[in-house]
Amino acid sequence: QLVLDTLDKFGTIQDTRALVLPGYTEPAASHDSQIIILGALNSLSSRDMISYTTQETVSHVLTPEGAQIAVQGSHEARVWQALPHKGEGSSMTPKQLEERVGSETAKIGQGRAFKNKWIGKEGDGLVRLAPSIEDITQVELREVDSTGTLKAGEKALAELRKRKLIVQRKGQWFTVKKESAFSTSISKPETDLTIDMLTSNSWKTSTYKKYNFEAEGLPPSGGALHPLLKVREEIRNIFLEMGFAEMPTSSFVESGFWCFDALFVPQQHPAREVQDTFYLSDPAESKAPPKAYYERVSKVHEHGGYGSTGYRAPWSDAESRKLLLRTHTTASSASMLYKLAAKCRGEEADQSADAAAAHGSSAQASKEDDSGFRPAKLFSVDRVFRNETMDATHLAEFHQVEGVVADRGLTLADLIGFMRVFFNKMGIKNIRFKPAYNPYTEPSLEIFAFHPQLRKWVEVGNSGMFRPEMLEPMGFPKDVHVHGWGIGLERPTMIRYGINNIRSLVGHKVSLESVENSPAVRF
Ligand code: PHE
């Protein structure tokens, strides 16, 4: 309103520093006042009521030390003031002076006061020499404080800057003139047409707020998938696209039998020790697994069979019955494969395995043959638990992505070919394999991918051809081969989102903002 009234009266405003803001008695010379005025100018010019041009200024303001000197005088002046006149018969020791004016002022002030010949020595003490002094520093600082500059010019300003008593401050002021929509009152422009405006015809004379096509829209509110869930969804889609069916994996608690024995992991294997696996104390023991199958499994461990010599180590029922938190989703794959082989064993077809096989594969391929076998492609993405030492990249629970393919006559070449297609769909074009060891697969392959940002080969998964010692006790015909692989979910997610501490991805320290803002997934 002040801007409008001033323009109304004088036609233009040459210098907004001359305006006196409401509630003030002095003109608005300060930086802060000009910022307030700029806000008003922007608002008025957006309504085409005024236009303005900006002028840049450089001015000076006092530092805290400068402000103190402007009030109390320079150190040298304070020293001079504290001392008695020469010839009055008294003097002051440096120690007394220090007590009087403080050590800093005494130290700095003495040097300058001596140089100016304001003070001198009398015996051991100090006295005034000059009968009167002019404290130029104080005078100059007061001038800077009120005008932002010195009439004496740049050299004097530079000297004060060097003494750290003033600093430069860039400023702005404005020249303002009227524009087409000028008026002394600000009418609020309409933002919408209403029925009232149409019936009263007021729409013809109303002013309307302009559309701002540069405005950013409001961020949509609503739920957001956690990055791990986004990645899981993407991986799930790749599997579904390749004709896989999802396995049920809700049983976090498994027995030693399904997690290890069924997979031909020896009962003495270090992975089964408490340092690596979480065991349940209540209930501590599982129900008995299917009897005939259990006997075939224990036999192949202890004495061998199906062309294998077995481990030839004593078998423990207790070890097999222990309840634990599954250490890999291969436990679920094992029980699913066992169900898939039901008809091969001469039993009723198992519904869940049957449904998965029928859903996942093409009609022709999924037809069961004379032996009761039907090919299957199965996957899961779910949680596993390991008694790990937790650090920036490891937690005691994490997610595994797992796939198994069962068909007659599958070879290692099928596994390798399949892995290339699968990882290619994840955007990982360049993979390599390295021979590895798993108790349940032979051969076994570790999968490495070239990481373009890290510029090195990183391990992305583990895979292999399931052993006959695992498959044949389940009842599969000899020529039914199964290949499988497992990859982590957290690692690719962390790489994708540039997260290097797992705690920013999982747990109570995850920022909701990062979840809401994380982009769609593209590996
Ligand atoms: N279970 C293996 C792991 O935890 C992954 C794997 C699955 C390996 C299937 C081979 C076959 O790393």
UniProtKB/TrEMBL annotation:
Q: Which InterPro entries match?
A: aa-tRNA-synth_II, aa-tRNA-synth_II/BPL/LPL, Phenylalanyl-tRNA_Synthase, PheRS_DBD3
Q: Where is the Aminoacyl-transfer RNA synthetases class-II family profile domain?
A: 230-519
Answer whether the UniProt record assigns the keyword ATP-binding to this protein.
yes
Pfam family for this entry, one = tRNA-synt_2d
EC number(s) recorded for this UniProt protein: 6.1.1.20
A single cellular component GO annotation: cytosol
Give yes or no: UniProt keyword Zinc-finger.
no
Superkingdom, according to UniProt?
Eukaryota
Keywords, in A-Z order: Aminoacyl-tRNA synthetase, ATP-binding, Ligase, Nucleotide-binding, Protein biosynthesis
Going by the record, the broad EC class of this enzyme is ligase
Q: Which GO terms describe its biological process?
A: phenylalanyl-tRNA aminoacylation
Q: Which one of the record's GO molecular function terms can you name? A: phenylalanine-tRNA ligase activity
NCBIfam families in alphabetical order = PRK04172.1
Name the chain's protein.
phenylalanine--tRNA ligase
Q: Which species is listed as the source?
A: Fomitopsis schrenkii (Brown rot fungus)
